Amino acid sequence: MSDVFLKEQSYGKDGVRLVKVIRTDNWHEIVELTVRVLLEGNFNAAYTKADNSLVVATDTMKNTIYILAKQSSNVQRIEAFAVEIGQHFISTYSHVSKAHIWISKYKWTRMLVNGKLHDHSFLRDGEETRNTKVIVSRKKDVVVEIESGLKDLLVLKTTGSAFYGFLRDKYTTLPETDDRILSTSIDATWNYYIPNISLISQIPFDDIFGSIRQIILDTFSTDNSASVQATLYLMAKLALEKFQQISSIHFELPNKHYFAYDLNRFGLKNTGKDTDIYYPISDPSGLITATVARTKSKL
Length: 299
Description:
By secondary structure, the chain is α+β, with helices and mostly antiparallel strands. The protein folds into two domains: 8-138, Urate Oxidase; 152-299, Urate Oxidase (Roll), CATH 3.10.270.10. It is built from five helices and ten strands, in the order ββαααββββααββββ. Helix 4 (205-222) runs antiparallel to helix 5 (228-242).
């Protein structure tokens, strides 16, 4: 008898791209999303016995996303829309025990034309995305877990950052500095505390996202940074102190290095306060990560 067994499984549809235009008379809004769905449940037979009788086709999942987007008033609020998608699969198919929903929302910024916001024209304002991951589970009751965040928020400041006092040994060549360019591409995710599914409608997801994004930008700009680690922790601390709905927040901050170019060999001074010519280095780069949490969360 074989000792091989199916330990875990899930399947679904990835890369479902969706655009919805919301029209209020001549004033239009545009929402562009990419959606991923993975289902868990009683699908073992499809793997172990080649029995597809309980398999929800991934093409059906794709169609479901477009249909729900047509019917939903929450497409702009990606957390709420993801919950709707997850609840649909849990309630429609009794053999589905868990639905994982990921949504990324892309930035379309309304154009300013002749000093006024245009009613139907937009521009892609950077590669930053707003993201959410929602898990809807069938247990004794329906349980919802929500993670939100942003990715690829590229920032840079030309002063107000130092790095010195770090451990030195025989392998260390990096010089200390009391002033440098600081740049990073910020990825941040935060987890919501949801003791009861009925409380989800009380969470102002859009306001929290906007406020945390602004906290990140304000802190990055104004903190006289002793290190990326110290600035990261301050960002997280301020976000958690402001929003009790959040139980933890995770950051990933890769260094985007800009080093002074050596012009001494050409008889030009480009050191200290005379430094104004730099060259960017993409790899290798430092990567600073941390998760900051509170001891107790509440809505």
